[in-house]
Every structure is written in structure tokens, then in C-alpha cells.
Design brief:
Blueprint: H1 3-15, H2 18-25, H3 29-43, E1 48-51, E2 55-58, H4 60-85, E3 92-98, H5 107-116, E4 120-126, H6 129-137, E5 143-149, H7 150-155, E6 159-167, E7 169-174, E8 184-185, E9 194-198, H8 201-209, E10 218-223, H9 226-234, E11 240-243, E12 255-260, E13 268-275, H10 282-289
Helix pairs in contact: 1-2, 1-3, 1-4, 2-3, 4-10
Pfam family, one: HTH_1
Keywords: DNA-binding, Transcription, Transcription regulation
InterPro entries: HTH-type_LysR_regulators (IPR050950), LysR_HTH_N (IPR000847), LysR_subst-bd (IPR005119), WH-like_DNA-bd_sf (IPR036388), WH_DNA-bd_sf (IPR036390)
Length: about 290
């Protein structure tokens, strides 16, 4: 048994003709006929009933074997595509969009990818989650990095999402504040502070439902400008609420994340997304593998 024989029987099943399969494969009719006969002898099965006027029709056993052969050939094509995606000759463009907070998490992967594939031009955009989803579905970007809860993911059936991180809600406080010494904070503790927020529906909806139970939140402003939020917190004007992976860690960090005690809050997943059913390019696949 060889791949050539599998290709022949799959094509004959489609064309119902050994002659057409021979033409498609650019070989003689006798070559196709002999190859299939040898395979039938090896398997001990008749794969096709052959008659004039009807052509070559798969037998019941033949249908099962041909189905398996088609699966093998499809996996072989996927294997070839996978191998090609590892090629050092990758070239083209990779357009990525991410929500602003966790962008620092991607920098090491992006830097390594650029070193290994200098012919790939990478463009990175900071956008809100709604804009990212719109761009994905309209083909404006190849890959989107978003934060999403399990409930929202279940509602978005058109999205293929791969989780990279699981986050929890935290309060961002200045490192010079006594609050930075706290291990955790309760929602009611926020009642006495102004808040600056990233303008994200997930955070905004949460605050209007959960934190409002402990008093009306004093929101100084909401913006997509991460630098403005960081400056407001560092200057002691307000606190911020976000997901823990959105904050840079390390002793040099000016903002310290303190866990917000929310027993009924569902985890927030950060990961990459593409439209469900869309065939990712070799460049996109190669980049995604580095994240796994």
C-alpha cells in the first residue's frame, strides 16, 4: 500500500471513472487500473464495481476504506502545511491587535519572532476589545489578544479563543501608599476613593453592578489611555481596578496590584482569538506556537 494508491481510489470515488483519474494524475489508464487491482489484492477486498455506462462505483466495503484514505490524505496535507510554516523563508505581514494593559506580556515573543523571521513585517495595534473583534471579523487583523470571561466566550460562538492566562480582579494603588502593604481589599474599602478606569465594558459593567452594592463608585474618568490612568494613580489622584496580568511586576513598578476580594467574580481569561472556521496563515500559526 502506498500514497499513490490512496490518491487513486479517492479520486476514482469522486470521478466514478478510472479514465478521468488517469487524466488527472497524468498517467496511463492501465497504471491506475493495475495500481487499484494490486491494492484490492493486498486488502482482500473489492473496492469498486466497474461496469459500462455506470463507471466505477465504490462497494460498501470500498466506501469505508476510501473514507479512511481521504482522512489520511487530509492529515498528510496538514502535515505538509505545518512543515512549511516552520520554514526560515517565511515572509509577509502579521497584523496583531491587543488590549493595552497586557501588551508587555507579548514583547518577548514578538522580539524572538522578529529575530527568527526578519522577512515578516509585524504591525501591533492597541485597541479596545470590541474594536479587536470587529477587526478580526472584517479581516483587518490576523490575530487579536483580548480579555474575556467564560460567560462572554460562551455567548460569542463565532470566536475561536485560546487561553494564555487566567486573571483575577485587583486594585492598582501607588507603591508609596499604605494600601500597597495590604494583601487584599474588600469592595466596600473602595467607597472612599476616586477611581480611574480603563474604558472596557467588562470593568464598567462589573462596577455598575457589583461595586454599586457598596455605594456609588466615584469614577474620576474612564479612558483607553493607559498612560493617563497610570499617571493619575502614581500622583495619588485615584485608584484603578483591573485584571492582575495588566500590571507590570517587579520592584520598579510604580503601581502595586492588591487583590480585590470578590467571591462571586468569574476569572478573566487573556488569550488570542481568530474567527471560528478561518484558516490561519502559516505566519500566524508559527507565531501562535510560540505562545503555547
Amino acid at each position: 500500500m502506498n500514497l499513490e494508491q490512496l490518491e487513486y481510489i479517492v479520486d476514482v470515488a469522486k470521478t466514478r471513472s478510472l479514465t478521468k483519474t488517469a487524466q488527472n494524475a497524468h498517467v496511463t489508464l492501465s497504471a491506475v487500473s493495475q495500481s487499484i487491482s494490486l491494492l484490492e489484492a493486498e486488502l482482500g477486498l473489492v473496492l469498486f464495481n466497474r461496469s459500462r455506462g455506470v463507471g466505477a462505483v465504490p462497494t460498501q466495503e470500498g466506501q469505508a476504506i476510501i473514507g479512511r484514505a481521504a482522512e489520511i490524505l487530509a492529515k498528510l496535507d496538514a502535515l505538509r502545511s505545518e512543515a512549511n510554516s516552520y520554514s526560515d523563508r517565511l515572509s509577509g505581514e502579521l497584523n496583531i491587535a491587543t488590549i493595552p494593559g497586557p501588551m508587555h506580556l507579548l514583547m518577548e515573543t514578538i522580539a524572538g519572532f522578529r529575530r527568527d523571521y526578519p522577512d515578516v513585517k509585524i504591525r501591533i495595534y492597541e485597541q479596545g476589545p470590541k474594536e479587536i473583534l470587529d477587526e478580526l471579523h472584517h479581516g483587518g487583523i490576523d490575530l487579536g489578544f483580548i480579555a474575556i470571561t467564560a460567560d462572554l466566550l460562551a455567548q460569542n460562538k463565532t470566536l475561536q479563543f485560546e487561553k494564555l492566562l487566567t486573571g483575577k480582579m485587583v486594585v492598582g494603588v501607588p507603591k508609596t501608599s499604605l494600601l500597597a502593604l495590604e494583601k487584599s481589599m474588600k469592595p466596600e474599602q473602595l467607597a472612599g476613593y476616586s477611581l480611574v478606569l480603563y474604558d472596557d465594558a467588562l470593568i464598567r459593567d462589573y462596577l455598575t453592578t457589583k461595586l454599586a452594592e457598596y455605594g456609588e463608585p466615584d469614577i474620576l474618568f474612564a479612558t483607553n489611555n493607559v498612560q493617563a490612568i497610570q499617571n493619575a494613580v502614581k500622583e495619588g489622584l485615584a485608584l484603578t481596578v483591573g485584571v492582575d496580568y495588566s500590571f507590570e511586576s517587579g520592584r520598579q513598578a510604580e503601581i502595586v496590584p492588591v487583590e480585590l476580594e470578590l467571591p462571586d467574580f468569574h476569572p478573566v481569561y487573556y488569550g488570542w482569538a481568530i474567527p471560528r472556521g478561518k484558516q490561519a496563515s502559516a505566519i500566524t500559526k508559527s507565531f501562535v506556537r510560540r505562545l503555547q
